[in-house]
What does this fold into?
Amino acid sequence: MHTSAGKRARSRVVMVATENDALKGAKVGGIGDVIRDLPGELGPLGWETTVIVPSYGFLHSVNPSEKIADVTFPFAGREEYCELWRVNLKGGGPSHRPASSRGAEQLILHHPAIGGDPIYYDDPKENVFARDATKFALFCSAAGQYLRAMESPYVLHLHDWHTGYIFLLSELHGAFAHLRPVRKIFTIHNIGYQGTRPMRKYAPSVEDWFPELFRKTRWIREWEDPRYKVPTFTPMLAGIRHASVVTTVSPTYAREITGPGDHANAVYGGEGLENALRAARDESRLFGILNGVEYPPNAGRDAVDDRRLIETVTGEIALDKNGGVAPFRDEIPERLARVLDGKGKFLLSSITRITEQKVRLMFEKGSDGLTALESILELLLRSNAAYIFIGSGSDGYEESLKRAFLRYEPFIFLNGFYQHSAAALFRRGNLFVMPSSYEPCGITQMQAMREGQPCLVHAVGGLKDTVSDGVNGFTFSGATLREKVDNFVRGARRALDIHAKEPARWRDIVASAREARFGWEESARAYASLYEGREPDKR
It folds into this structure.
């Protein structure tokens, strides 16, 4: 990979993923941020990046794209074809995307069966992943066949369970033999989602997608998931077992997932894959690399006052005719005006997907018999403080948040995702609350800190790696569920007390949060080392 003159030769990494926030409409979670930001930092290190994502039926239409090829590939016992589109972000890309993301070659594979409204489906437990597994197995077959045309050598960087089928195809399917010698990096973004489906008999199955593999069946034992009574394929497990290198998105999460879970006490661990992850660790194949965040020139400098926040929220929810906020549309502006009186009242904030992972600890009870959220809101009543929560997700948790809105005057729940309100809240809030039961990396805590807002977080995963207790924010932990809930509430009380009684110390914590840097440069160097077959430098 180096020239005789010692200068770094240009090398190529191909990233296959389901999200890409360099493109309009192609982001759901953290995968999109990584695929958007990482290529720009790899460029100066000598790595050119090609990114391949599905179209979901619309990405090639809403982004400035041109069709450049048709790709034929095997699926469901027949030859299929899809369209390959190249996106041109030079001068015509979405204006809110960072310029660094435009250095990558952006490719979209379009096939009618790879729908996405939403991008990820929520199938019932009795047939979990049925639709997503089918469309991503098809996507992997198409991407793998496109790579026949890719000039060697290159490194293949595969992201999360959705790409695990490429390992199966490259090792077992003759049409994908060209992928066998390729170095493959597999990144786990969230071990809780694994894509498990039956090998055969129960549709849709691996046999439905690739029946030609089942002319011989001796391979099944090596590739099946041992946790199930019937032969079952878990693409997440395939990636862990067969990748040259496995990475996760923070060092602490890489350690946590090698241990067992204890859901009763909000410990999630390796979610049943800890044995395979320990094996990867013992083989020196498992690494944790912290995700980064970009730091625009004005980061932390564009303050928002109460008036501007109220105007932003009121204007944005008025445009959302069908959002979950509708029942409170008229009441929210009045409540905001009462609660935010223009005097810089202490303001807690949360911006999140409303899932078990993100909010469970808010609704568990502590030693006082109240949930953590109830205890914190009672504390705010006594402290003359407020809390604005933006998010959507699980119906059950949403209903609990709506009830809290109706019961507690200082609590304002915006049920949906309101981009401009979220941006204003990052800049106006005083304490960002993120009590995730587990968090592979997290990005919102970095965004809040970037704007000078300290965070109160559960000391797990990337939250532990970015927030230092009493230095740039506040952390809590506990051996049992009740200890975690009690310590969560104590953390909120401690932050309020320091703000009220120790203003100089509070200013130091705010300054430390604003000055903390979690850029992509160091992470990109770590990935580049792995691409080249070297271990990253330990810092």
